[in-house]
Design a protein that fits this description.
Strand content: 15-25%
Oligomer: single chain
Strand order of the largest sheet: 5-6-7-8-9-10-11-12
CATH superfamily of the largest domain: EAL domain
Helix content: 40-55%
Radius of gyration: 35 Å
Number of strands: 25
Number of helices: 28
């Protein structure tokens, strides 16, 4: 709202602009002039929340709309002045009774205010609507005041009217807000968080909603107002209560994600233990709850904040960082708070299928999360393409309108999304016959219900001295792990036996064991197991099949398997590039044929590579081979197509197996990149020879003949296996047809590709 400084600035502007003052005086002699004052509601808060760049966009848009309005005949606007978010419009009026003129001016003001609001909100600069205050006053032609004095009082009156409207509105809003708190008049809506490996709901995020059709229906308004009134803790307590009450009675293994503003924990009203009492009242446990730490504001005191979170962790709660990538100090928060889940903001997920930078960023975060035994939740998934990309990158969970919209109930995952998840998860788990999974090395384990007495578990260990651990279950679902050594250490303390002997094993179990589906590759299991803290690093890994326990895996068996797999892979991989060799290429081709789906094969071969090796030596030749391997792998990533394969047949021969819808486009991209980057491996003398010869050189071919060439070139043979019965294909048929195409490509000059197809029966 404008203050006296604004008045003085305006008056100074008008006094120093004689043309403006003369215009107003001249118009006043003919008719009264109406002043309409407009101001953006809560503009200071908007700037604090969204920053000055967003505010600049709003002001530029508002100015443009005012310019357009001044050119129209609406209210016959004579002139306008804009100071920040304060707008002053001078309108030509017809002489009439004061009351009638004032009422008419207010009508014009309201009409203009609504029109400007609507047009501003159509621009969608903010997620919430922008609103304007308005005030009016009339400059009368019969006034004996000077023009300066007349303007000053008119401005003051218009601003006072708008301020009175704002004060009255705020008082009413405060009363409405207090009534919401007193009556606990809010509801919880729930949006599913979906496993991207099973397609099932892993949990639900509770989202607060105010009274329907009220100013506080939108959660942003509700929580912003609570923060301004220093009632954030009170509101979050009610929101948490409502969320827990409605969640009670669900599958006991579903997670409830509750939002927690970082400032609430440091609120003087904050009382630990209230959530636990509420959970017990509705037969829930802390293991059901994940606290989402929102980054609406920066966390200033990480030390205190971390201690409070540790208090919650010890009770069994888990922690998530919300909106990572859009908040204040995401990386610092992750490093300090060590969350169990990282929720990646919609700003990163949006269009990730078309934005390479976003893809690389998410890929890096997923890799980082794996190393610290943390789970990634991709927020705001709205398209099939976004879902496909985050699955292929390895995100653990997803959330967004495509998977399920927020609602008062607990909606399941859409059939379309489940089908898509199951379709795209398969290649990661089954595409390679060399991939050993947790299910391949799982062994049976003794299980106890969570209410089993500690004494019974001790008795079992005493009978079987070679058994290292047991799994604690609720039905068929694992809820904890007890390792022999740790149990006996707890009982060996001074009061261990009298304190725990007749109590349930739940008191001493590890409520956070590493639990993995049988389909998880052993390599992934190894990485997650070794990322655990030192006290847990040799504990069993629990294996499940669709959420139900199937057994355990020891660290020893994981490491032994990893060693065997690496030895086997090394035998079947090219030592120079690390790419799959001939045996794995053959298995991949057999798998593709067995799927009976269209695919294409691209054979890559270097021309005049022997000449290059003779010219520069094998060391630089090896660098070119590695360059080609990396180029082909990068091309598959850019192609953004699932289930791609690159193999190294030997020497300078490579193979790509792809489902790309336009493999010719892929070939053109590869050739373009190769011709551009191969020059990096030439010396200056060779580059000068190429340039002086118009791109041609004299080289020696494999037969020892000197022939004209364009240096090292790339020949691609594209073989399309499309539209027919794949069962008639064989490795021999493919090899023969590909050989014919390679010969044709070799006969042409420069880097080229030749396309052909396998004739399939329909």
């Amino acid at each position: 709202m404008a203050d006296r400084l604004s008045f003085l600035m305006f008056l100074s502007d008008s006094l120093n602009n004689m043309k403006f003052a003369e215009q107003i005086s001249k118009e006043l002699k003919r008719h009264p002039i109406g002043l309409i004052y407009l101001d953006i509601k809560h503009f200071g808060e908007i700037e604090r929340k969204y920053g000055h760049k967003v505010c600049d966009r709003i002001l530029r848009a508002l100015k443009q709309l005012i310019v357009e309005a001044s050119k129209s005949d609406k209210g016959e606007i004579l002139v306008y002045k804009i100071l920040g978010d304060d707008v002053f419009l001078f309108v030509r009026m017809k002489q009439d009774e004061a009351k009638i003129m004032k009422a008419g001016l207010r009508d014009v003001s309201q009409e203009l205010r609504i029109e400007l609001q609507n047009k501003l909100n159509q621009l969608k600069v903010l997620p919430e609507d922008i609103e304007l205050y308005s005030g009016t006053s009339i400059l009368n032609q019969n006034s004996k005041r000077s023009i300066d004095n007349l303007l000053y009082h008119a401005i003051k009156e218009a601003i006072f009217e708008a301020k009175s409207e704002a004060d009255t509105e705020y008082t009413l809003l405060r009363a409405e807000f207090r009534e919401i708190l007193e009556r606990k008049n809010i509801t919880a809506h729930y949006q599913p968080i979906v496993s991207l490996s099973t397609g099932e709901a892993y949990g639900y995020e509770a989202l607060t909603r105010g009274p329907k059709d009220s100013y506080f229906a939108a959660p942003t308004r509700l929580f912003d107002f609570a923060e301004k009134e220093e009632q954030l803790y009170a509101l979050e307590s009610i929101a948490r209560e409502r969320a827990i009450i409605s969640f009670a009675g669900n599958d006991p293994f579903l997670k409830l994600f509750l939002n927690m503003n970082a400032n609430v924990i440091l609120d003087p009203q904050f009382t630990p233990g209230q959530t636990l009492k509420l959970l017990k009242k509705f037969n829930l446990t802390p293991q059901n709850v994940v606290f989402e730490i929102t980054e609406r504001q920066s966390i200033d005191d990480f030390s205190t904040f971390t201690k409070v979170l540790e208090y919650y962790r010890k009770q069994g709660y888990r922690i998530a960082i919300d909106d990572a990538g859009a908040g204040y100090s995401s990386l610092q928060a992750i490093a300090e708070l060590r969350p169990d889940y990282i929720k990646i903001d919609r700003s990163i997920i949006s269009d990730i299928d078309r934005d390479k930078i976003k893809e690389i960023l998410l890929d890096t975060l997923i890799d980082f999360a794996r190393k610290i035994n943390c789970h990634i939740i991709a927020e705001g998934i709205e398209t099939n393409e976004e879902l496909t990309k985050v699955i292929r990158l390895g995100a653990h969970f997803g959330q967004g309108y495509l998977l399920g919209r927020p609602g008062a109930g607990f909606a399941g995952v859409s059939d379309q999304a489940v089908e898509l998840i199951k379709k795209h998860r398969a290649p990661d788990l089954t595409s390679s016959t060399n991939t050993m999974t947790v299910g391949d090395i799982v062994r049976p384990i003794r299980m106890f219900e969570e209410q089993t007495l500690v004494s019974e578990v001790v008795e079992y260990f005493n009978k079987l001295p070679n058994e290292s651990g047991v799994v604690i279950v609720r039905g068929k679902k694992p809820v904890g792990l007890v390792m022999r050594e740790k149990l006996f250490q707890s009982l060996a303390s001074q009061y261990g036996v009298p304190l725990y002997w007749k109590r349930s094993i739940q008191k001493l179990m590890d409520g956070y064991p590493l639990v993995l589906e049988e389909s998880v590759p052993v390599e992934t299991a190894s990485r997650l197991a070794m990322a655990r803290d030192q006290q847990r690093i040799y504990d069993y890994v629990i294996a499940t099949r669709e959420g139900e326990i199937s057994g355990v895996v020891s660290i020893q068996s994981i490491l032994d398997t990893m060693t065997d797999v690496k030895i086997e892979l090394a035998k079947e991989s090219n030592p120079l590039t690390g790419l799959p060799g001939n045996r794995r290429v053959e298995r991949e081709l057999a798998r593709r044929i067995g799927q009976n789906k269209p695919f294409s094969i691209i054979y890559a071969d270097l021309d005049y590579f022997k000449w290059f090796n003779d010219q520069y030596g094998f060391q630089r030749g090896d660098r070119v081979i590695r360059f080609l391997a990396e180029l082909l792998q990068a091309a598959t990533a850019i192609a953004n197509v699932e289930d791609e394969f690159v193999g190294h047949i030997g020497g300078d021969d490579f193979i790509m197996i792809t489902s790309h819808p336009n493999p010719s486009e892929l070939c053109e991209h590869i050739i373009g990149q190769f011709d551009k980057e191969i020059r990096n491996y030439y010396d200056q003398q060779l580059l000068e020879a190429l340039d002086s010869g118009g791109g041609w050189l004299s080289v020696t071919n494999r037969q020892g003949e000197v022939v004209p060439a364009k240096g090292v070139c790339l020949s691609l043979a594209l073989l399309e296996c499309l539209g027919g019965d794949m069962s008639c294909l064989s490795l021999e048929v493919i090899s023969k047809r590909a050989g014919e195409l390679k010969k044709l490509a070799k006969e042409r000059v420069g880097s080229v590709y030749v396309k052909g197809s396998c004739q399939l029966q329909r």
